[in-house]
Design brief:
This protein has 11 helices and 14 strands. It is an alpha/beta fold and 310 residues long. It folds into 2 domains: 209 residues, P-loop containing nucleotide triphosphate hydrolases (Rossmann fold, 3-Layer(aba) Sandwich), CATH 3.40.50.300; 65 residues, Alpha-Beta Plaits (2-Layer Sandwich), CATH 3.30.70. The strands form 3 sheets. A 6-stranded mixed β-sheet has the order 6-7-8-3-9-10, sandwiched between helices. The chain binds adenosine-5'-triphosphate and magnesium ion (MG).
Length: 310
């Protein structure tokens, strides 16, 4: 069936609600995703990320709402939708005692028209590990095998549910690169994460999810500009004299022990910073370290909810 899509949206979620008994896990959320975007659902444990993803993947029923994937209503076209998407579940299972090649090939054989397995292995930089048993791979390599399996049917949209949770920084970077590569190949990626740096690094669009509701949406930059509260000059290990002098000139600074925190206004941030530094310089006051702490998506989350993200 050909469906015209005038909006370039490959995913359209409208007024989605999911109840488990009386508990509302996803509460009236709507969003659209454009072709070729990396879209991040950012939220803490229990926010409703997996529930939403599994509904989109036709693995769970929705309670209220409409979801269109590639123009197809998922409730009426489940089989067709499933053919066009790839899925990396939060806890994915493969065969521990099969090699990388054998695992990917096993899943590839489920689809009559599938991507060449060696091409996938190369794309995920797994060539060297092709003959290694899955059980002997590091965490990051295992996740890359999971992503390769999600791609066996050459999907237009790939769902990755927390692809880097529990990985060390190097392994996370490797998985991030693999996800960027999906974008350069024209795939649309729906990613869930509770790592704000991951959403910031990867996503074109971020939706912040909290208790089943979307509490903010936009590009990472938009979110930081709109909800971040600006950058902060941190002056560390200051003498009592330094603290007294600074507070006289910048009365709304915060003192935390021997540290001084100065919120930099968006317009005159540089001016404010040089004012603080010149006081220290002029009076030869002791401060051991200065740096500017940039706002992150973590601050956005904290400002919006009063909670930490993870
Ligand atoms: N089958 C279920 N029955 C009842 N409650 C459920 C069920 N699945 C999930 N929930 C609840 O729904 C809420 C959302 O869960 P979900 O797994 O979607 O969160 P999440 O954002 O993916 O969290 P995490 O980051 O921990 O994976 C949680 O409170 C969870 O306990
Ligand atoms: Mg989850």
């Amino acid at each position: 069936m050909m469906v015209k899509n005038m909006t370039n949206n490959v995913i359209e979620v409208t007024s989605l609600m999911k109840k488990y008994g009386d508990f509302i896990a996803v509460n009236d959320i709507s969003f659209n995703i454009k072709k070729g975007e990396i879209f991040a659902f950012l939220g803490p444990n229990g926010a409703g990320k997996t529930t939403t993803v599994e509904i989109m993947e036709c693995l769970k029923n929705l309670t209220i709402g409409t979801i269109k994937i590639l123009g197809l209503d998922i409730r009426k076209n489940e089989m067709e939708v499933k053919k066009k998407i790839g899925v990396l579940p939060q806890d994915f299972n493969v065969f521990e005692w099969l090699t990388v090649f054998e695992n990917i090939d096993y899943f590839a054989q489920m689809y009559p028209a599938h991507v060449d397995v060696d091409t996938l292995i190369e794309m995920l930089s797994l060539t060297e590990k092709k003959g290694t048993l899955f059980k002997d791979l590091s965490g990051g390599l295992k996740q890359r095998v999971g992503i390769a399996i999600a791609l066996v049917n050459d999907p237009e949209i790939v769902f990755l549910d927390e692809p880097t949770t529990g990985l060390d920084p190097k392994a996370r970077r490797d998985v991030w690169n693999a996800i960027k590569e999906l974008k350069t190949r024209g795939k649309t990626v729906f990613l869930t994460t509770h790592y704000m740096d991951e959403a910031h690094f990867l996503a074109d669009q971020v939706n912040v999810l909290h208790n089943g509701r979307i509490i903010a949406e936009g590009t990472p930059e938009d979110l930081i500009n709109n909800h971040g509260g600006g950058n902060t000059l941190i002056m560390r290990k200051c003498s009592a004299n330094a603290k007294n002098e600074i507070i006289k000139v910048i009365p709304d600074c915060e003192i935390e022990g021997d540290d001084i925190l100065i919120k930099l206004p968006e317009e005159d941030g540089m001016k404010c910073m040089s004012k603080a530094l010149s006081i220290v310089n002029r009076n030869e006051l002791a401060c051991e370290e200065f740096y500017v702490k940039k706002t992150t998506l973590e601050d956005v989350f904290l400002n919006l909810t009063g909670d930490k993200l993870s």
